[in-house]
Specification:
There is one protein chain. The chain is α+β, with helices and mostly antiparallel strands. It has two domains: 145 residues; 75 residues, no CATH class. It contains eight helices and eight strands. Strands 1-2-6-3 form a four-stranded antiparallel beta sheet. The protein has a two-stranded antiparallel ribbon with strand order 4-5. The chain has a two-stranded antiparallel ribbon with strand order 7-8. The radius of gyration is 18 Å and the shape is globular.
């Protein structure tokens, strides 16, 4: 097995490989029991995953359709790959698996000023939908550590774009955000997705389509209202 094989299997569902690293006992990975292993984090970046999900979406009665679809897809990919590959998910909990810490370890994603991870290529327009744990050491590309793109972002528009100032350095006022969405004045948020996210200049060519942006914000609003 190699990364190309894994990338090909993921691509069938519009998923991309976002991060990889060799694991150690400090990574808090369940089921590894101290053995050697490689963790492959995958998800969306660009519209391909959304198009696959939209065409295969579970029945409307399913309360968490994207999580349900992601679980089904990652478990199917894991079963297709030889060598006892297992699938892990960021939405199964509590306790939740430390996907953001894993992404940071891989070196190509960094905490943004208002919370979500910013990817070197995809900016804020990516999400980790799952991970594949391979119980062997795959050959991985040598990656030179890169500074966060936020370090060179002088004005940090993500911190000032929210119409109700829900975001500050390391803080997120969820009640203010939800209250704005419920007020009837949040249509621009529903149409474009979170305006703080949309203000980020990194990876704008991968920005969510309106249908995807609305889906994610509708889901957030339903879970927090």
């Amino acid at each position: 097995m190699d990364l190309k094989t894994i990338e090909h299997a993921l691509a069938e569902y519009g998923l991309i490989l976002l991060a990889t690293f060799h694991v150690n006992p400090d990574d808090n990975i369940p089921g590894l029991a101290g053995a050697d292993g490689t963790l492959v984090l995958a998800g969306n970046g660009g519209p391909a995953m959304w198009h696959c999900f939209a065409s295969q979406r579970p029945e409307p009665s399913v309360s968490d359709p994207l999580d349900t679809w992601s679980r089904r897809v990652f478990e199917k990919v894991a079963a297709q790959l030889a060598g006892n590959v297992s699938a892990l998910f960021p939405f199964h909990g509590p306790p939740y698996l430390p996907f953001q810490a894993w992404a940071s370890k891989a070196g190509n994603a960094h905490p943004s000023p208002f919370g979500p991870m910013v990817h070197d290529t995809y900016g804020l327009w990516h999400a980790y939908r799952g991970a594949l744990l391979i119980p062997s050491l795959l050959d991985l590309p040598v990656r030179q550590p890169q500074p966060s793109p936020c370090d060179a972002c002088r004005h940090k528009p993500c911190l000032s774009a929210c119409p109700v100032d829900a975001f500050g350095p390391g803080t997120y006022d969820i009640p203010a955000c939800v209250g704005h969405l419920a007020s009837g004045h949040g249509e621009s948020c529903f149409g474009k997705g979170c305006l703080a996210r949309s203000a980020c200049p990194v990876g704008r060519e991968f920005a969510y389509e309106e249908a995807q942006a609305r889906f994610h914000l509708d889901t957030f609003f339903a879970n927090h209202r």
